[in-house]
Design goal:
The chain has 482 residues and is mainly alpha-helical. It folds into two domains: 173 residues, no CATH class; 206 residues, no CATH class. The chain is 72% helix and 0% strand. The relative contact order is 0.11.
């Protein structure tokens, strides 16, 4: 079940809200949220629900024991046990088959490679558990005494399977003491419908264009097809995928934040319009913020951060970006994608630190979006031959023509849609809304207009999204695979 399915929008989520509001107190409301969350997670495969519950139970026991220990040595032992369980299980399910397959390809052993199904959302909830265990060790949060409260934190269906990575410290108080305000409910509804529209109306269409222009079918002829794609087709496909992956993932975060707000949870923002960035460094401050800050606080800073020698600083960055790439999937292209950003970030730190070096704002934004878009091609295609073919195809180095009849027709027919999708990747709508809110404070007409917009926009977006989802078989969430 995905958030952008009609089953979720018109059955599961409304039933969840109804049952939640009928409960007499917060204790029962938490029980309802836990039941619905476990059902939601088990929908894709009940067997892996045991893994999620088991990992949570192990960390609950470890942190309870840790909280009783006064000796630092014993606390550290508990920390090692908790981290070993979490990282070990993540590596087993996500990476063991990958490494065994590579050993088989290189050395012929083992003869039979074990096929392991990846549990949905394991990368996200494992990082949440890791942050909880480490924060208890650091005494930044208290160990949760109630197992079911901790399980609710880990399994909350708003963010369990595709983020954002919610830290325990951010919701610790709200797990046991929160209020539902009318303003929060209204904001949550607006945020949810905006995310649903971004997904159903924009991301899915961008995905269809990307698949068409980049011939992203899983067939033996894909390499030949990619070579023959016209230059314009490759560029259009690259930018369509660039917009798809942002609109898709940020839509999920919008819906998660909106649903949380409806019941009193205030999840942190996960995206801050990354495609308007003026550098790769700024891009990663705006993109998947919960992941970036996790690696910063739990890997980069413990390694020494930038308070060390230059060589050690570069090594710290290398470790972080290798892990960032590999976190996204058990494939060499993801590692390459992480190292790709490592090179640009190190280069920026070396060059942009010079006071005499200045790039005009427009050029810096063009530079950033091009580097990010090229990076998404490394992210999308696993085979080095496909990546190389795409990058060469962008400049006609495959002997491919600039365009053909089909590409020209598709470009003309989709031009207006691409303009709308580009605008959706910018804060233009947010800026206009903020201006209207400021005017509403002093102008009665603007106040009426604001109320009409706040009521009408969610309704219109919900109707349009529903129309788009009816009979639409193309409705994936890209980050479910991670």
């Amino acid at each position: 079940m995905v958030f952008s399915s009609l089953l979720f929008v018109y059955a599961f989520f409304p039933l969840n809200l109804l049952c939640y509001r009928l409960m007499p107190d917060l204790k029962w409301r938490n029980r309802i949220m836990l039941i619905f969350s476990l059902i939601f997670y088990a929908w894709a495969g009940p067997v892996y629900l045991l893994l999620l519950v088991g990992m949570t139970l192990a960390d609950w026991l470890v942190t309870k024991e840790m909280s009783k220990c006064m000796e630092q040595k014993l606390r550290k032992r508990c920390l090692i046990i908790g981290c070993t369980i979490n990282i070990g299980l993540l590596c087993f399910f996500k990476y063991l088959s990958f490494f065994l397959q590579n050993f088989h390809n290189w050395f012929g052993v083992p003869e039979n490679v074990l096929a392991i199904t990846l549990p949905i959302g394991i990368s996200f909830y494992t990082f949440q558990l890791l942050s909880y265990v480490v924060d208890v060790y650091r005494r930044e949060v208290q160990a949760q005494e109630n197992f079911f409260t901790l399980l609710l934190y880990v399994s909350m269906f708003h963010q369990c399977i595709a983020g954002p990575i919610v830290r325990y410290e951010h919701v610790e108080k709200e797990l046991t003491n929160r209020k539902i305000l009318r303003a929060d409910v209204a904001y949550g509804i607006r945020r949810f419908t905006i995310g649903l529209a971004k997904k159903a109306l924009l991301a899915n269409t961008c995905g269809s264009f990307a698949d068409s222009f980049l011939a992203a079918t899983s067939s033996d002829s894909i390499y030949t097809t990619l070579i023959s794609q016209p230059v314009l087709s490759v560029w259009l496909g690259m930018f369509a995928y660039t917009m798809q992956i942002y609109l898709d993932f940020s839509a999920y975060s919008d819906m998660a934040i909106g649903m949380g707000r409806m019941i009193g949870f205030h999840y942190h923002e996960n995206f801050n319009y990354p495609y308007i960035s003026k550098s790769i460094t700024e891009f990663w401050r705006r993109w998947h913020i919960s992941l970036s800050t996790f690696f910063r606080d739990y890997v980069y800073i413990p390694l020494g951060g930038n308070r060390c020698s230059k060589l050690r600083h570069i090594f710290n960055l290398l470790v972080v970006w290798a892990l960032t790439g590999f976190w996204h999937g058990a494939s060499w292209n993801f590692l390459l994608w992480g190292l790709y950003y490592f090179l640009f970030l190190v280069t920026e730190k070396a060059i942009l630190a010079r006071s005499e070096f200045h790039i005009p704002r427009a050029l810096s934004r063009i530079y950033t979006i091009l580097i990010v878009s090229f990076g998404w091609m490394i992210f999308r295609f696993e085979a080095p031959s496909q990546i190389l073919s795409i990058l060469k195809g962008l400049f006609g180095l495959n002997g491919n023509s600039f365009t053909n009849y089909e590409t020209t027709v598709a470009f003309k027919g989709s031009f207006l849609f691409f303009i709308i999708a580009i605008l959706a990747c910018t804060p233009i709508a947010k800026v206009l809304g903020e201006r209207l809110q400021k005017r509403a404070l002093v102008e009665p007409n603007a106040q009426v207009a604001l109320q009409v917009v706040q009521i009408a926009v969610p309704i219109v977006l919900l109707i349009l999204s529903t129309a788009a989802l009816v009979g639409d078989s193309y409705n994936p969430f890209l980050y479910f695979r991670f």
